């Protein structure tokens, strides 16, 4: 989780009085009023994150961000997030953004934790500031805006990564290979068949053929909503790859609507066997391997 940065906060008693050059800026107020800033910051953030985090978790995050911010602040009040001194702060903000993205926080909820520092500092200025401190608040505000935008950028990248991982997981679940009979496997497809998914389908089918030693594979497209030229090409490539391993494929699930589309597009399946249903494809595969299927008539003996 987050790393606590310690030993960077200067207390009122420890700060030299002679440092008059920055005594009236936001950096000095930030350093000298740590507990008050953290309390105000936590309170402001809690108004937007109520119910999303416990107060203890929120205060911990705020304290760590405060410590990292103070650790990166040098002399004067003009700073940017790109400063080398803010390396620890950038790492901390990235950690918080990744964590909240995976926890399901929205981008607004992620960034509001940083923007709440503005309200906290305005409260401190009202209590302890003067005209010079108020003038420096513009520089402080620009820095906080940079922090919030940085968190939004990292959050967006983290959410994209999470979505990608979920898509990969769904892709694996949507392409199961089922053993129907000795020497016969089936690959039922559901949903759109694009290039990325075709690669997964081909790999899983070929691996299953090797693992099971099957000579027949049924590719069932009953759950594929439409077959166009691209989908047909994907299916043909999969069948050709299976043939290189010595296995024959049957494509099942050819509904009337799909048959009409295939004919209208002029798609040729060549010598590839096609069937209207999975049961017909299984029967055809059984006959190809020399297994007869006999339908019993009459009542069974009890």
Automatic annotation (TrEMBL):
SUPFAM superfamilies the record matches: SpoIIaa-like (SSF52091)
Keyword flag Phosphoprotein: yes
Keywords associated with the record: Phosphoprotein
Signal peptide: none
Transmembrane domains' residue ranges: none
Domain STAS: 174-285
UniProt key word Phosphoprotein: yes
Record-linked PANTHER family: RSBT ANTAGONIST PROTEIN RSBS-RELATED (PTHR33745), RSBT CO-ANTAGONIST PROTEIN RSBRC (PTHR33745:SF3)
Protein name: STAS domain-containing protein
Organism: Nocardioides jiangsuensis
């Amino acid at each position: 989780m987050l790393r606590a940065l310690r030993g960077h906060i200067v207390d009122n008693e420890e700060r030299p009085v002679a440092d008059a050059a920055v005594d009236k800026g936001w950096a000095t107020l930030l350093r000298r009023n740590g507990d008050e800033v953290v309390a105000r910051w936590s309170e402001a953030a809690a108004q937007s994150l109520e119910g999303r985090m416990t107060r203890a978790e929120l205060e911990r995050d705020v304290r760590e961000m405060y410590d990292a911010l103070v650790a990166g602040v040098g002399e004067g009040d003009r700073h940017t997030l790109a400063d080398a001194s803010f390396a620890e702060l950038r790492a901390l903000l990235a950690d918080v953004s990744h964590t909240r993205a995976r926890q399901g926080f929205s981008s607004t909820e992620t960034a509001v934790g940083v923007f709440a520092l503005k309200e906290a500092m305005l409260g401190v200025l009202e209590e302890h500031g003067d005209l010079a401190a108020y003038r420096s608040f513009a520089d402080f505000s620009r820095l906080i805006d940079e922090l919030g935008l940085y968190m939004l950028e990292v959050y967006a990248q983290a959410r994209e990564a999470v979505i990608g991982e979920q898509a990969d997981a769904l892709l694996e679940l949507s392409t199961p290979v089922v053993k129907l009979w000795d020497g016969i496997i089936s690959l039922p497809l559901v949903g759109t068949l694009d290039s990325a998914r075709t690669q997964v389908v081909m790999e899983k089918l070929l691996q299953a053929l090797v693992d099971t030693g099957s000579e027949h594979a049924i590719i069932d497209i009953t759950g594929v909503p439409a077959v166009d030229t691209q989908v047909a090409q994907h299916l043909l490539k999969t069948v050709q790859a299976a043939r290189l391993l010595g296995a024959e494929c049957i494509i099942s699930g050819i509904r009337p609507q799909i048959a009409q589309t295939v004919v209208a597009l002029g798609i040729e399946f060549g010598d590839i066997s096609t069937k209207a249903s999975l049961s017909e494809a299984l029967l055809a595969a059984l006959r190809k391997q020399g297994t007869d299927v006999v339908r019993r008539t009459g009542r069974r003996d009890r």
